[in-house]
Design brief:
The chain has 86 residues and is of the alpha+beta class. Helix content is 31%, strand content 33%. Strands 1-4-2-3 form a 4-stranded antiparallel β-sheet, covered by helices on one side. The protein contains 3 helices and 4 strands.
């Protein structure tokens, strides 16, 4: 059975952090990593390793997200993503 981990986060990205850096930071993990965001009442979930998916979400400070991961290193992956986004 695969390991799973998830965490809620409110986006608070400094101007020095780009979505490219967030996407690149996730490439070292074997887990699949997802971001889930409610956009006008519709839930959007993207694979965080997909740069195009990140652009589609149009993250802004104050956004409420669920960061989740599935795989052997899921807990480490979620913690690293949360640290980038908050």
């Amino acid at each position: 059975m695969e390991k799973k981990s998830s965490k809620n986060v409110v986006v608070n990205i400094s101007k020095d952090v780009t979505i490219i850096e967030v996407s690149q930071a996730t490439q070292k993990f074997t887990s699949e990593i997802y971001l889930k965001k409610n956009v006008n009442g519709s839930i959007h979930e993207i694979n965080l390793k997909s740069f195009l998916g990140l652009i589609t979400l149009q993250l802004r400070n104050g956004d409420h997200l669920v960061v989740s991961a599935i795989g052997e290193d899921c807990e480490e992956a979620v913690e690293e993503v949360v640290s980038y986004l908050s």
